Every structure is written in C-alpha cells, then in structure tokens.
Hints:
- The complex is a heterodimer.
- In chain A, 26% of the residues lie in helices and 29% in strands.
- Chain A is built from eleven helices and 22 strands.
- In chain A, a hairpin with a 4-residue loop joins strand 14 (287-293) and strand 15 (298-311).
- In chain A, the strands form five sheets. In chain A, strands 9, 12, 13, 14, 15, 16, 17, 18, 21 and 22 form a ten-stranded mixed β-sheet that branches.
- By secondary structure, chain A is α+β, with helices and mostly antiparallel strands.
- By secondary structure, chain B is α+β, with helices and mostly antiparallel strands.
- In chain B, the strands form five sheets. In chain B, strands 9, 12, 15, 16, 17 and 18 form a six-stranded mixed β-sheet that branches. Chain B has a four-stranded antiparallel β-sheet with strand order 1-2-3-6. A four-stranded antiparallel β-sheet of chain B has the order 5-4-7-8.
- In chain B, strand 15 (303-308) and strand 16 (315-327) form a beta hairpin.
- In chain B, helix 6 crosses helix 7 (132-142).
- The longest helix of chain B has 15 residues, at 22-36.
- Chain B is globular, with a radius of gyration of 23 Å.
- At the A-B interface, helix 5, helix 6, helix 11 and strand 20 of A face helix 1, helix 5, helix 6, helix 7 and strand 5 of B.
Amino acid sequence: MLVKPCLAWHRQRQCDLAANFAAFALMLILAVLAGCASKPYQHDPGLLLDIIRRAEMKQQGKVQVRVSVPGPEETKAFFGIPLYDSQLQPVWIEVINRGDTELRFAPVGTDPLYVPPSEVAYTHRSGFSREARSEIELYLHQLAMPRRIEAGKTGSGFVFTQARPGTKGVNIDLFGPEKDDVYSFIFFVPVPGFTADHTQVDFDTLYAENDRSSYDENGLRQALQEMPCCASGPKGEDLLNVVFIGDGNYVLQALLKAGWYERPARDRARVDASSNASRLYGRIADAVFHKEVANTTGVGELRLWLTPMKLGAEPVWVGDVIRFINGPDGAVALDPDMDDARNFIMQDIWYAQSLARLGWLKMLPPVPFEEPRIDALGNEYFTDGMRVVLWPSRVPVSLLEVEYAEWDDPLAKPAGDGNDSADQPGALP
Amino acid sequence: MKHRLTDTVAFYQRQRRWPGYGLLWFVLVSLVNVVGCASTATAPETATSLMERKQTQVIGEIRVSAAVPSATETRQLFGGSLYAKGVQPVWLEIENGSDVGVYFLPVGTDPLYFSPMQSAYLASFDANKRDPEALERSFYQSSSGLRVPSRQTVSGFVFTTLEEGTKAFNIDLVSDERQGYPFTFFIPVPGLKLDHHEVDWGGLYPEEVWQHIDDDQTLIEALERMPCCTTDKNGEEQGDPLNIVVIGETDDVYRAFLRASWDETETIHASSLWKTVISFISGGEYRYSPVSGLYVLGRTQDVAFQWTRENIHERNHLRLWLTPIRYRGTPVWIGQISRDMGCASRAAPLPPTRSTRTWMKPVNTCWKISPILRL
C-alpha cells in the first residue's frame, strides 16, 4: 500500500502522501522504541529493612543464620524488576560467623538452579537505558550473598532461586576449612502474599476431645484397618493409600523438604463448593499438596485429612496420593497406577531425610489391572491394596537409619494372570 | 481399561495428523531417517542385543545387572519413540541372595522418573496402530517393582529422564536390616559420536615431555607457567581465561562431571549439525551440541562438557585439556568454563593468572555430589 503508489511516478500526490505517512510511522516507531529503551531504573532500597525485620533466625554453635523471602510485590519494588514474573525468587540470607575460621557458603545447596546476579540483570535489561542497565547490574552485584564469611564477620545478601508457590524451604550449607566443619540449616519461610489452604482449618476444634481416641500401636493398626478405605465422591471412591503419624508441623516440613508445595487458600473454598469433591468425615481434605513429577510432564497430588485417632499423643493423618498426567490444553488424566504414586511419596520423604519410621498396612484386597475400581470422578484405577504408614522426622534421618514398623509385609510387584509369557513382572515388552 | 488416560491419548492421536504440515513433516522425517539410518531389527533380536551389553555389579549378596537401550532399540522394544519424549528406559535385574528383603528406590536412580503408565501415554503418540490398553499393560508389566524378596530375582524397567552419551545412574538398595547397597553404573548408550572417543590419549605427549610433580608448591608454579587464556588457531589472539584445574584420572574426571549432570559433547558430523541447526531455530535443547574449538597447548579442547539450562542459548560450557603434568602420578587438566546467558557469552570473572583457582560454579556442583576429594 505504501510502495505501490510510488511505483506509479505519475501519481505524485498520492506518492507524497504515502511517503509522508511512512516517515511519520517510522518516526513514531523510533520514538516508541527510544522511549522504551530509555526507562530509568527505579527501585526502593528502603524495603530491605522490612525484609530483614521478619527474618527467621537459627543458630548452631558459633554460627548464626537469618533468612527472609520477599513476596512478589515487595520484590518488584525493592529490585525494580518483576523477578517473580520470570520464576525467580530472591532469598535474603545473613551469616554471622563468630567462629575462628572462615566459612564458605555454597549457593548450590540452597538451589542447584540458582541464577547469578549478572545473569538476572542481563535477562531483565530490556526496556532500560544504558545507564539503567549498568545500575541494575551494580545493584544486584552489591546485594549478592558473598561466598566467603571471614572469622568474626557477618555476610549477608540475596541468592536468586527458582520460584515456588507457598512456604519456601531454604537450605543453607556452610563449610569450614576442616572436613567435619560443616553447618547445615533448614528454614521454612512464609512468603508474603501467599496463604496456604491448611491455615484456614482450625485443627484444634475439628474434633471434640470426647471424639478423639488414643491407641497403642496394635490398637491403631486395627483402627486403621477398620476405617474406610476411601473418601467418597459422586461417582466412586478415592483411595486413602497413605498415613502420616506425627505433629502437623513435622508432616508439613517433611513435605516441603521433599519439594511438595502447598495449595493456595483461595482454592479451598472453590473445591468445597464443588459437588465433585470427595469427602471424608463429611468434609473435603484439610490440606492439599502438589509436586511436579516425571520431568514436569505430570503432577503429584496429596490430600490429607486429620483423623480423630492418635498414636499415644501423636496425631494421625490419612491421605489420598495420586499422579496426574498432563494432557492437552491444561487438561489432566489420572495415572491409574495408585501404587506408583504411593511408592513415590514414600521414597520422596525418605530421600528428603524426613522419614523416621516406615510401615505397611493391608487396606483392601488387590484391585488388578484388569478389574479396576472407580474414583470420585469416574476414573479407573488399580492397586495392590496396601497403605503406606510414614512417621515424619523433625531431624534429618539418613537413608539407612529409617526404622521399620513390623506391621504387614510390603508386597513385591504383583504378577499378571499368567496367560502369556509377557505377563510376568519385568518381562521385556 | 477405559479411563481418561486413553481418552486423552485418543485426543492426541487425532491431533497428531498435522494435515497442514504433512509435506514438511515428510521431508523432515525423511531427512532424520537418512541421517539416523533406522535399523530394522526385530524386538527379540533387540532384546538379545541389549542383554549382551548388560553390566553387572555385586555388593555382598546382592547382584545388580543393568542395560540401557538406545533410541532405536527403545522404539523396537516399546513401539513408541520414548527418546523423543525425553524418556529413557533402564533395564535392571536385581538378584537378592540375602536372607532378608530389600527395597529398590527408583527415586535414587532418578528423582524425576516416569511412572509406567505415564511412559505408556507418552509412547502412545507414535503407537497409533497399537491397542492403548495393550500398550499400558505392556508398560506396567515391564516395569520394576519396589521390593525384592529374600532369595529372589526381580527384573524390569525404570523409565528415567533421557541422558544420551554415557548414562550415569545410581541403584540404591536398602535391606530390611538397614544395610545399604549403593551401586553406580556408567553405561555407554549407542547413538552419539562423542568428542573424547576420538582422542588418542597415549599419543598426546611423548614420554620425555611429562613433568612428574609431588608437592603443592611446585604444582602451583607449574600451573602459573601455563598459558592464562585460550587462543585462536594461530595462537595469536587471547580469548577466555583458563579458570579451572582438575586433577584426576580420565575416567574419574568424566564420571565426576556426569554425576553432576553435565552432558558430553558430540563431534561435528552431519547428524549433530542438523540437530544443532534445528535446536538453534526452534530454541530447543540439544544437550550434546558440538562446541567451537578453543586453542590451548596448540590444539582444541580434548573434551567438552555442557550443562543446558532452558535451551541451546543458555548453557554452561566446560572445555578441558590434558596437560603434560602428573601430580603424584595423577593427570592434571586445565580448563575453561563459561556460562552463556542468551546470545552473549560471559567468561568467569576471576583474574586469568590465578589459574590454580577454580570458578565456583563447577566446584559447587561437584562438591554437592561428593566425587571431589580436595579443594
């Protein structure tokens, strides 16, 4: 439209108009581009005081560590760039080294995929003027957590980690010059702007004291076998295939440490209003957790209910753990192999060094692949009928220190119906 | 089995017909087939070939055998292009000769492992002619379990995240008496042409050139005499600083970086160039892409590793050269490590003359997985 009239030289007036329009459009584009690229760098360093003020503190020997995590809005104002939009979450760390030797901080221990400040500045340079870009780079560099904290000194700064929803589990590893000179801290830091669904439940008033039963181990085992196998839904039942025994905070910390994240509180009301939700004790789950699995092609979901049972004074929780397979357009499909989902969370807690004790309990007869059951939403599933019982630990437990409860024996993978040779476990397809 | 999984698969199969791009796909697939030289072996032949390559390790009364099928073998065994979906089956056989049961923990092999049904779902993209239920059943039955009872042998596949080149993985077994059996396998996977396979390590230096050093100070002085930086082919223009030194036998060096999730590098050939071009255009992650040659000691790097983050533009590069120095009998390597942040590349910030110091990123990584003995 702009070129064609100019080719017809005899239509000079039309050509002039077109040329003028082209020049105007070009100038407008240049002006917009110049405006975009000349944005000054604006940030509010004063917010650091607010971030530090709510920091959580822990101490080991002569080493004191404080940690705080700014929320999305706070981060945008303090750094002048919307880091959460890029799935980056800054973590403020302070190490006070009152010992006699230098300590080395390893950010890989906090997040193996942490991003150095120079790269954060580089990937957020768009739209800023040349001077502003230098300012951002310098600002982030100055705010970075130092790698070395000399004896008698304090080191503080930010590590730019991968963002995750909900309470932030932060691991801090510090190394001294000697082999055994290792300090490992773990924090669970609330993030402003996020409210977890379980904070909406008043666990103290869920049951009247008369309704709660305290058992010894044999009594609890029997009570768990007698309780419903499943949570009821409109089309079927959701299998309750996992039990946690322990304080709610330990359960929460074990799950956070294993990389599971909380559900936002706003989702709770939506699920509660839905007729599709499965219920146990007449209510929807008290807490829901998710975790991306299978290299992000799937999602694990754990729904937990506080039961009226106790083992001594320890609360008992039952849950339904499943895996979803990501489908097209955000749709998901249920992975019908319930045992794989159950085994995954058991291993996950084990490898997070948060498992003190492990047991197995027969819940219902095996549901074979060929004769599946129906869940609350009408999906089919199969299972060996076992429930895993997990005792989360407050302190780290190594892989070989986990105790085994002598309840039922865990099952090897069940064989098929034996009709053909490829039906046996492990057979080459 | 009728459930939402198969419904979803059917949806995908309908979507996969690509009516508007048929010709383009025909050309692409033809090219890939020409480059890849697709094999026509049958599934039983493939299974036999796979078993012939299996590696076996024994700790106490536990024997573990492992094998990793290549992309072609996986397609022949499972009927779908699992490699194209980022899934790599690992075959295991665990023989428990002890008096107590043991747990096999697949999370120790790969925390991101795929469930059998999820793998069946991903394989179904290329398995139009197979019955989805039969496919799911086949995957389910071929997967390994979690328990190996006393005096029994269990075998099956674990569906892991794809690692071509050399597959490095752990097999963690814990007995009911809390005895640990940690196995580590490094299994070459057919299909890639790797740079370090083409180096004649024995012929790099004549015997009289080797320096044998036994004390730290002499080593530091020898390293300070090394070039500060990489150069161009003529040795004239100085490039990136040589900012890392690694001391270790060749296999130990490979394994340290492989266990820390670094990928090996392909040589330049038709297939690798094609994959690089496609990855560059599409923003994909061709993790084994050939890297440009930088010069030190008169030659390009002996081995290169890379660590891809989001895509081919964002990766860490490590190039290593074997030096003619042995420290207490162990080879000394000098290297250059940099982190690409997009189109631009930025080398590590340490002064180039401090070549005995390492940039923190690889040290951090190795440190966490503990093959590093001394820092």
